[in-house]
Amino acid sequence: MLEMRNICWRILCNRSFSSSVTPNCFPLVSLDRPHDIWHPPPTPHYSTHQKTVEIDGKSIANDIKATLATEVNHMKNSIKKAPGLGVILVGERKDSRSFVRIKKKACEEVGITSVVVNLPENCTETEVLDAVSALNNQESVHGILVQLPLPCHLSEQKIINAVNVEKDVDGFHPVNVGNLAMTGREPLFIPCASRGCIELLHRYGVEIIGKKAVVIGRSNITGLPTSLLLQRHHATVSVVHKFTKNPEEITREADILVSDVGVPNLVRGHWLKPGVVVIDMGSTLVTDSKGSHVTGDVCYEEAIAKASLLTPVPGGVGPVTISMLLCNTVEAAKRAYQWTEKS
Ligand SMILES: NC(=O)C1=CN([C@@H]2O[C@H](COP(=O)(O)OP(=O)(O)OC[C@H]3O[C@@H](n4cnc5c(N)ncnc54)[C@H](OP(=O)(O)O)[C@@H]3O)[C@@H](O)[C@H]2O)C=CC1
Ligand SMILES: Nc1nc(=O)c2c([nH]1)NC[C@@H]1CN(c3ccc(C(=O)N[C@@H](CCC(=O)O)C(=O)O)cc3)C=[N+]21
Q: What is the number of domains present in the chain?
């Protein structure tokens, strides 16, 4: 029995940290991990000449979008309805406008209809709440997203609370976050970046159960839900934030390291254990000698010498986050119409 267990572990370890990993095409992440199974943590065996594999988020996102496009097409043929996403965009922030453009284009690619409500920077809270309420009441809108951050004079809390929980495709409503945090409960939606992170780990065959995971950042939109979701997948999770002393001592323990900060080059090579799996969620627009470009939190050149798997920025978790938004929207529409592929 013990020998059998050891063999299973060796298979899992090899699968998790092999240098020849190619993504799996099996379906999307679910919360339903077996709660009654607890495997002892493995001791991964790292070879010194292991080559880092760069995670290809773009191709995973394309794969997910192709599956969704087929499903949306079936839905349209069967009930003559399409999933719909409503986006509220307040103000003129260049990055927010660009993200909304990316989301709108992704919707078009899979056949989701989208409507963007643009409000001026100086709009009142009541105007935003009215826009949320209108989308809550619109039958053809199944998912609502309020692009963040909002201008300081608006209460993010009040506005997110106003989104119908059943349309909360960002997964930011406190009811959905609470259900994500509590054992035995199921949120209707999981925040897209966190869901994207787990999806990448699954597709690259990274075993999460019993692994030491470190999440840098604890914000409501990325760090917090990611640490909750990793716990639901039975990782042992540590959270690092602004007030953490000697963060590198904690991150060096990680089998899986997720960075959700927004500070370029925060994570250096000496923060990493050899063979670690690194998911870099940071996305900061910088202007340097290479011109204007998006960069992550992890010093890529140093991490590539240490990690077994690494997400680049751009082209890592970002595109998968967008495809998770599409998944959540399609799931919302399926629930609203009580439609499944078989119906
Ligand atoms: N790729 C994707 O799909 C997505 C990427 N992002 C990106 O993720 C990044 C984080 O976004 P968001 O969570 O909204 O940002 P926030 O600014 O809301 O949160 C940043 C978090 O990082 C922590 N932090 C800040 N500085 C340090 C430091 N020096 N050491 C350790 N921890 C630190 C903060 O700690 P404290 O709590 O103590 O203040 C906070 O918890 C951004 O670059 C954003 O663009 C966001 C969503 C999706
Ligand atoms: N209500 C709300 N929901 C969000 O999910 C949300 C938000 N507000 N506010 C901002 C953050 C940030 N975020 C990103 C999503 C995709 C990429 C992404 O696709 N990045 C590309 C690069 C994009 C580019 O080049 O501009 C990549 O990494 O390849 C990045 C960041 C979602 N957020």
A: 2
> Which residue has the CA at smallest separation from atom 24 of ligand 2?
294
Show the domain range for 235: 47-58+182-320
Q: Ligand 1 pocket check: which of 219, 249, 284, 327 to mutate, most ligand atoms within 8 Å of Cβ?
A: 219
Backbone angles phi, psi at 246, to 5 degrees: 45, 60
Express each pLDDT in 278-324 by its tens digit: 999 999 999 988 899 999 999 999 999 999 999 999 999 999 999 99
Any domain includes 238: yes
pLDDT digits (tens, 9 = 90+) for 119-174: 999 999 999 999 999 999 999 999 999 999 999 999 999 999 999 999 999 999 99
Tell me, yes or no, if 103 is annotated catalytic. Answer: yes
Is the residue at 42 inside a domain?
A: no
Pick the atom of ligand 1 nearest to 262's CA. Answer: 43
pTM of the model: 0.90
Integer Cα distance of 14 and 3 in angstroms:
16
- CATH number of the CATH domain containing 191: 3.40.50.720
Atom 9 of ligand 2: nearest residue by CA position: 148
| Catalytic residue (choose from 168, 170, 280, 297) | 170
Is 52 part of any domain?
A: yes
Residue 236: inside a domain, yes or no? yes
User: DSSP assignment of 79-128, as one string?
Assistant: HS---EEEEEEES--HHHHHHHHHHHHHHHHHT-EEEEEEE-TT--HHHH
How is residue 62 written in tokens?
Answer: 């394309």
